[in-house]
Amino acid sequence: MSVAWSIARRELRGGLRGFRVFLACLALGVAAIAAVGSVRSSIQAGIEEQGATLLGGDAAIELTYRRAPAETRDYLETIAEEVGEVIDFRSMARLPEADDSALTQVKAVDGTWPIYGTPELDPPMSIGAALGQVDGLPGAVMAPLLADRLQLSPGDTFMLGAQEFRLAARLVSAPDDGSGGFDFGPPTVVRIDALAESGLIAQGTLFDSEYRLRLPPGTDLAALEGEVTDTLSDLAPRWRDARNGAPGVSEFVDRLGSFLVLVGLAGLAVGGVGISAAVRAYLDEKTEVIATLKTLGAGRSTIFAVYAFQIGVLAAIGIVLGLVLGGLIPVVFGQVISAALPIPADIALRPGPLAEAALYGVIAAALFTLWPLAKTERVRAAALFRDGGTPEAWPRPLYVILTGALLALLVGAAAIFSGMAEIALWSAFGIFVAFLLLVAAGRLVRAISRRLARTRALRGRPMLRMALSSVGGPGNEAASVVLSLGLGLSVLAAVGQVDTNLRGAIQRELPDIAPSFFVVDIQPDQIEAVRERVEGDPLVERMDSAPMLRGMITQINGRPAREVAGDHWIVEGDRGVTYAAELPERTEITAGEWWGAEYDGPPQISFVAEEAAEIGLEIGDTMTVNILGREITGELASFRNVDFSTAAMNFTITMNPSALSGAPHSWLATIYAEPEAEAELMRDITRSYPNITMISVRDAIGRATDLLGTIAAAITYGALITLVTGAVVLVGAAAAGERARTYEAAVLKTLGAPRARILGEFALRSAILGLSAGLVAVFAGGMAGWAISTFVMETTFVFEPVSAIAIVLGGVLVTLLAGLAFAWRPLAARPAQVLRARE
Length: 839
Description:
- It is a single chain.
- With about 850 residues, the chain is an alpha+beta fold.
- It has four domains: about 1-55 and about 250-420, no CATH class; about 85-200, no CATH class; about 420-515 and about 700-839, no CATH class; about 540-675, no CATH class.
- It is about 55% helix and about 15% strand.
- The protein is built from 27 helices and 21 strands.
- The strands form two sheets. It has a six-stranded mixed β-barrel. A six-stranded mixed β-barrel has the order 12-14-19-16-18-17.
- Strand 12 (about 540-555) and strand 13 form a beta hairpin.
- Helix 2 packs antiparallel against helix 12 (about 350-375) and helix 24 (about 755-790) packs antiparallel against helix 25 (about 800-820).
C-alpha cells in the first residue's frame, strides 16, 4: 500500500487534467442535496425554536364547535400561568352600504392575545388600541389583501354577521400565522366580546375554540399532555404544544424537502454517468503507465490501489467542494429564503444535512468508479500495449457484488434519510429503469445510424452520411450523450408531466362537476327560506343540503380508534357527520342495508366503503363518535361509495335521525349554479342572513392551484440541477471527443471538404444525439409521470404534449450548443500539423 500511495501521489502532481468533469458532477450532486437538506433543517430548527410563538402558547387545547365550560377553564387556570382563548371560523366580510363581500378567516381573541410575540400593524399601534372601541364601534385588523379587495382603509367600517366593525389597521403579520393550515380567506382579527351580537358564534355553527397556555418553566409537556387529555376526555380535545408549533407547515416542508432530496439523488445518478466516463477516460490515458507497472511486476491489487488512492483523493476534493457550495447557498440567500416562507427559518450551517450529503457523495463516488477501476485487473500488459486502450472486460465477481452492495447502500440511505421509504424505493427503481432504457437507446441509436449511413437513399448526401457514420462508429460518445442528457431530461419530463396533471386535475375536472358554493352555518329555521330563494332561480341547477355536525371517532369495537386504525386519516381529528331518514339521492350502498324511514332503534351508522376496507371494518362492527362532548356508539349498518374528488357534499359518517336528536347543529348546502348567477346569489343570501358563510369553490380552486404552482416551481428548480449536471457530463463528453474531431476535420479538409460542410456535419451529429436523448426522455419521463400521478397523487393521468415537445427541443438545443462549442478548435487546426503528428 505504501508503494501504491507513493505512485498515486506522484501522478497526482500532474494536476486535475481529465478530472474536471468528475469534480463538477460530484460537487453539483452533493451541493444540491446539502443545500436542500440545510434549508429543510433550518426551517425545522426555526419551528422548534419558535414553537411557542408560532403556536401562540407553550401548549394549546382545541375544541370543535363549542367553547370550554367554566369548570374546564378553572382547571386550565390551575395548570397554567396564563390562559388565552382564540375562536377561529370563516365568515363573510361585507360593506355596510354596498353589495360587495369577501370570505375571511376570523380570529376572535381575548385580551391575552398574543401570549408570545407581537403582531405587526400598519399604521403601527398596539393590538389593544387597534381592537378597542371608538365611538361605540369595536375595532378590527385585517390582512392587506382583504382590505384591498373590499377597498377599505383604516377608519372605514365593515360588517361581520350582524355586527359592524371599524378597521383600525392592516395586519401585516401575526406571530401565530404559521400554526394553522390551509385557509380559504385572508385573516381578520377581532375581540371575542365584540361578536356577542353578530350571530356568528352559536351552538351548531362551525367554529373551533382554542385555549392557549403559558406554562411554568420546565413543564414536562409529554406528561401534561397525558394528564389533560385524560382529565378532559369527555370533551375530546386536540392537544398541540411548542415541540411542534406548526405541524402542518413542518410536515409539508419535511415532505417537500425529502422529495427534493430524491430529485438531488437523481442528479447524483446523472453525475455518476459523468464520474464513470471521466474515470474510464482517465484510465485510457494511463494505459501505458499501467502496462509499464505490470511489466515491472506490479500486481493487480497494487494497480487497483494506485488509482483507487488517486480517485479517492479527488472524490474527497469534489465532496468538500459540494459541501462548501451546498452549505453556503442557504446562508448567502438566507434573507430571500426567509422572506418566501410563512414561518421563521434559522438559516445557518447545519452539520446533519452536510453529513448526509457527504455520505451520499462517498457512496456515489465509490459506486460509479469501482466498475471502470476494477476492469483494469482483467487485462494483461501485452494486450494493453497492443491495443492502446482499455478493452471491454467484466471485472471479477467480487467487484460485481461490491457494486450491487454499494447500490443497495445508496438506495437504503435515501429511503432512511428521506423519511419516504416507499417513494425512495420506487424512485430508485424508476431511475434504474430509465438508466437501462437509455443504455439500450444509446446502443440502438448507434446501430440504426450505422445501418442508415450505408443505405442507398443517402447517396449524394455526404453531410448526413458522415454524421450518421460518426454516431454509429466506434467510441462511447453516443452512449454517453444519450445516457447523461437523457437521464436529466427524464427527471425534468417527469416533473413537467406531474405538474401539468396536478393542475389539470383541479382546473380540468373539478369546474365541470363541482358546486359553485359551499354554504355553511345555515340555522335550522333558515334552511327552508334559503332553499326557496335558491331553487326559485332559473340559473340554479340544484341545491343539495344536509344537517352538519362534526365528530371524532374515539373507539372501534370497544378499542381505541388509533389502536385499530393506526395513523389512518379517518381517525386524525374530527370528521363530518350528518343524519338522514331515507337514502339520499345519488348514494350507492356497497354493503349492508339502509335503515328504514320509520327506524327508531339504537344508533346506526353508514360509513364510507373505501376507508372501511382500508381499516378492516365489517358490517356489524361498532363505532363510537364523540359529538360535542357526547359519546355515541352505533353499529355499522352499511357502507357507501363516496368520491371526495368531486367536491360535492360528502360525509364520512351518516347516522339515523334519532341517534342525534337534540344535538345542536347547523345545515350545510352546496349550490350548483351558472357563473352569471353567483354574484347575485351571494349578495342576496349573505345580506338576508348575515350569519351564513358562502365559500366560492372557484376561489378555493384558484388558491389551491396557486399553492400547487409554488410546490411545482420548487420541484422544477431541483430538477434543473439534475439537468445542469447532465449538461456538465455532456460538455465532458464533447471535450473528450475534441481530439478525435480534430483528426476527422484534418482528414476532411485534406480531401477538400469546406469548413461549412464539416461544421454542418458536427452540428447534425449533435442534433441526432440530442433528438435521441429527448425522445427517450419523453417516454421515460411520461412513464414516471404516469406512475407518480396514478399511484402517489391518485389523480387521472393525461399526457401533456407541450412539455414533451419542449423536452425534445431542449435536448437538441443543448447537445447542439455543446457540440458546436467544441468544434471551433478542430476546424481551426491545420491539417499538416495534425496529420504529421499521427502514424
